[in-house]
Design goal:
This protein is α+β, with helices and mostly antiparallel strands. The protein has 5 helices and 4 strands, in the order H-E-H-E-H-E-E-H-H. It is about 35% helix and about 15% strand. The longest helix is centred in the first third of the chain and has 14 residues, at about 5-20. About 20% of the residues are buried.
Length: about 150
Amino acid sequence: MPFISEQDQAAIKQLFDENFVDPVKLVYFTIPKSLLYVPGLESCETCDDVQELLDEIVGISDQVSLEVHNLKTDQEAATQYGVSRVPALLITGASHGRLRYFGAPTGSEFPNLIHDIVAVSRGETALSDETREAIGAIPDPIHLQVFVTPT
């Protein structure tokens, strides 16, 4: 059963078609479920579901691609992208920045994910010029994190 209804897929396709400027690459880090239960083996309960969701998003537009990495076996990519936990999703595009999601971007986070994909394609943010100037004036590199919880 698909995560995204046909009606929602059509709306997302229209949003992508009307707003995309540059292609977007989704870089996903996962730990696939093991067919065997091994005590102490790290697993990810939501990784397979997130990958299915991302596969559906990629199926909506040829402007969106998906690159999947196993966190345990592809340490080079994990180091390159600075990823140490799963599920991890990076949204990258022609602009220099990238956006990250840790955890499953489902429920109330799903619309944000779709709009973030569009924003990365356009190389735009909703920040005011004043905020951009203030951030640009910071002399040192910064690492900004936003934590969201449905509770």
